Amino acid sequence: MVKLYGFSGSTCTRLVALICKEKNVPYELTSVNLAKGEQKAASHTAIQPFGQVPYIDDDGFILYESRAIARYLSKKYPNQGTSLTTSDPKAEALFEQAASIEIFNFSVIVAPIVGEKVFKPRRGLQPDEARVTELLASLQSKMDAYEVILSKQKYLAGDSVTLADLYHLPYGTAFYGLGGSFAEVFDSRPSLLRWWKDISSRPAWLAVKDGA
Fold first, then answer.
1. What is the CA radius of gyration of the chain?
2. What count of other Cβ atoms lies within 10 Å of the Cβ of residue 19?
3. How far apart are CA 109 and CA 103, in angstroms?
4. How far apart are CA 84 and CA 77, in angstroms?
5. Which alpha helices (H) appear in 23-128, and where do they start and end?
6. Which of 28, 58, 186, 204 is the most exposed place for a label (fewest CB within 10 A)?
7. What is the pTM of this model?
8. Which H/E stretch holds residue 169?
9. Is 36 in a helix, a strand, or coil?
10. Residue 56, helix vs strand vs coil
11. How far is it, in rounded angstroms, from Cα 57 to Cα 60?
12. Contact assessment for residue 32 and residue 83, using Cβ atoms and an 8 Å cutoff
């Protein structure tokens, strides 16, 4: 059984839990309480030197960074659960392309918005609305490009779901849940919305959406 060290509600911990669910890999969550700063404790940073969550212990193999963990689990269990990666060179290249799209055209914009609108208020801080407005404006053209891609194929890397699609779920769900002009980013683009409804209704995500 994979030992998952993280915080149940954290975006990255839930991403790893999601992949475990998709791959039918049992895991045991050991809580690292972010509110108490346990991720900065010496015992934690001795393993995860950046003081972040999550990391896994897979029978003595230690790995951190949620996307790296996702790829590892997908590669280790290629014929178990949902197929999320491939060994075909062309399909793998399209997956890598889609994974880059997610990082540089989605997460780098959506994660700071969620940080301002969700995480700051939880800590009793006021969001920087000017920054949110600027980020939201920059997201529009990126989602126009998503609309073009998804009007031609079912998922970002082709017609099969991959890790690149699932990487969007933790921050994307928080972003879409803000409603209003934030949800409208998806709602106003039919192919994007069709894709979002598809991936966000997957049973594996529903199982961990509210906590790993």
1. 17
2. 28
3. 9
4. 10
5. 42-45, 66-76, 89-102, 108-114, 120-122
6. 28
7. 0.97
8. helix 169-176
9. coil
10. strand
11. 6
12. no
